[in-house]
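Protocol step 4 of 6: structure prediction from sequence.
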Amino acid sequence: MIVVAAVLAALAALVHVYIFVLETIRWTEPATRRIFGTTEETAAITKPLAANQGVYNLLLAIVAAAGVVLVLVADPTSGERAAGDALLTAGLGSMLVAALYLVTTDRSKLRAAAVQGTLPLLGLLALLVATLTA
């Protein structure tokens, strides 16, 4: 089950790298503005804020990816595996909390929250099962 958790975490990390690209590199592009429902003027004004948020998404992806590497290469009885579990929990848990915050503060963002939070939720559940059955 740890492999399932790692795959889900890796996919969640990729989603967050994609979000980073949108928010940090492509924020003012027409296609990105359509995704986020912003105007050209609003995108120009909010570009620094979006970039900052994008960096947070990248950091979450890095934490989750580091956890994936550790849980897949470490001896299950070593401290490295425990560190990998902790990184997965921190990365995926933060992604999930951000998605929950998004949907609870703006119900119109349900689709975005689902994209952002489904893989982390499933990854955390798989990690829990892997931990309980180890």
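Step 5 (inspection) to follow. DSSP finds five helices and no strands in the chain.
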